[in-house]
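Let us work through a complete example step by step.
Step 1: write down the sequence.
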Amino acid sequence: MLDLFAEDEPWQETLAPGAVILRRFARQDGATLMAALNDVAAQSPFRHMVTPGGYTMSVAMTNCGSLGWTTNTRGYLYAPVDPQTGQPWPAMPAPFQRLCEAASQAAGYPDFVPDACLINRYQPGAKLSLHQDKDEPNLAAPIVSVSLGLPAVFQFGGATRSAPLQRVLLEHGDVVVWGGPSRLFYHGIQPLKPGEHPLTGGFRYNLTFRAAGYYE
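Step 2: predict the structure and record it as tokens.
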């Protein structure tokens, strides 16, 4: 069983130019982050979105912030209203904002201010195929991605889908930040293996902070 209260100091690993892993950076905040996440999900429940091509995603998703990532028959978009509830997405919780600010500063992006947080929930077997985060109107902003719960294998490639992949294990509390020359690198998550985490049970959660509006 993972030690939820491990006191190991965080450390930093370089993935690529402009991309780092902040190991265990969010571990001490796990319980606070999960409480805030559950509040968000109570207002905008998790759902399995359907891609424009008709594929139902294995990862369950919801959002918080002034904009939320969603899909429709025409493509992918950011919208201020949750199409499932007809209400604005829940406000971004203060613990989310504090963590994102600290992580982006530690990774060398001190001016990053997110306005959207996509929350992914993985159950065993769920995965995220290789993709680029390219729906944001201004790509000057980095991506800040926080792992909570069960470990997963993160794939980080290059500017083309065929570029060689790095495969790294992300554990509870790890934060990946990428931007600059790595901003459009392909990435994904391999199918989640079964397990049990003391905080999240049989699930992995991922918080992905983005600037979905205009960013300077």
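Step 3: interpret the result. The chain has one domain: 11-210.
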